[in-house]
Write a structure and sequence with these properties.
The complex is a heterodimer of chains A (about 90) and B (about 160). Chain A has about 90 residues and is of the alpha+beta class. Chain A has helices at about 1-5, 10-15, 20-35, 55-85, and strands at about 10, 40-45, 45-50. Chain B starts with a helix and ends with a helix. Chain B has helices at about 5, 20-30, 30-35, 130-140, 145-160, and strands spanning about 10-15, 45-50, 55-60, 65-75, 80-85, 100-110, 115-125. Classes of the chains: A alpha+beta (about 90), B alpha+beta (about 160).
């Protein structure tokens, strides 16, 4: 999955980078696809696999919200403290 | 959006405080401003401790003495920079496999003697990949994401 996080790839490309057979890569991809984690698309004779962005996007949204609220809280904390000490 | 950008959250804020104080408050008082609903313990948090050294942890301590070490301090260069791991999976459980954790870098830049720019980058979010199935399942369940979103909305409402 980290290979696919870099960029979309075909089965053959993944098999070259991983210490498992092309057939094993295909089986893994089938499981990942059934789980909704990757999607694929035909490009000529090849099938290109990419990460399903919904999963990353959901987590990213959650973390974005977390840090927005944390930094707002941080600003209040740090600036209140400044007033107290001045 | 490219795949590389998909795994990064960036935020920045400018605070009216000297850089030393900005750094100290971020680390020493992390527990005071961390959104409180993100508690990985089963009991209320008594304190959050940011251990100020490389190899330290960020630790939530519960009122009953239970502990949750949910981050590892990877860089600690006061008052300029701190980097820590984010060992929390997509379903807000502690992730024990470092290969499946992301990291947060916070840099502090003095704009004036009394003003500091704080830039935060949370990167490698895609490393949490193996948990996405749980996220997807969580979205589908009443007790999963909708609950979180409701809690967010309630908190935001209170704040207004």
């Amino acid at each position: 999955m980290q290979c696919l996080a870099d960029r979309p790839r075909a089965v053959g490309e993944l098999a070259e980078e991983l210490p498992i057979s092309r057939q094993a890569v295909s089986q893994h991809l089938r499981v990942l696809k059934d789980a909704g984690l990757v999607t694929n698309q035909a490009e000529g004779t090849r099938r290109i696999y990419r990460l399903n962005p919904a999963g990353v996007a959901a987590l990213k949204d959650q973390l974005d919200t977390f840090w927005r609220r944390a930094l707002d809280g941080y600003q209040n904390t740090v600036e209140d403290k400044t007033e107290e000490s001045s | 959006m490219t795949q590389a950008d998909a795994g990064v959250v960036r935020r920045e804020i400018v605070v009216e405080a000297p850089i030393d104080k900005a750094f100290m408050v971020f680390t020493d008082r992390f527990g005071d401003f961390k959104p409180p609903e993100h508690n990985l313990l089963s009991v209320p948090i008594a304190e959050t401790v940011f251990e100020p050294k490389v190899g330290g942890n960020i630790v939530d301590r519960g009122e009953d003495g239970s502990e949750c070490r949910w981050a590892r301090i990877l860089a600690y260069d006061p008052p300029h920079r701190v980097v820590f791991s984010w060992d929390i999976g997509p379903t807000w459980q502690v992730e024990t496999n470092p290969d499946h954790t992301s990291e947060v870098e916070v840099t502090f830049t003095a704009e004036t003697p009394d003003r500091t720019r704080v830039e935060l980058e949370h990167r490698h979010i895609d490393r949490h990949g193996p948990g996405w199935e749980s996220v997807r399942d969580g979205i589908a369940e009443d007790q999963g994401w909708p609950l979180y979103l409701d809690r967010y909305a309630a908190l935001l409402g209170q704040a207004r």
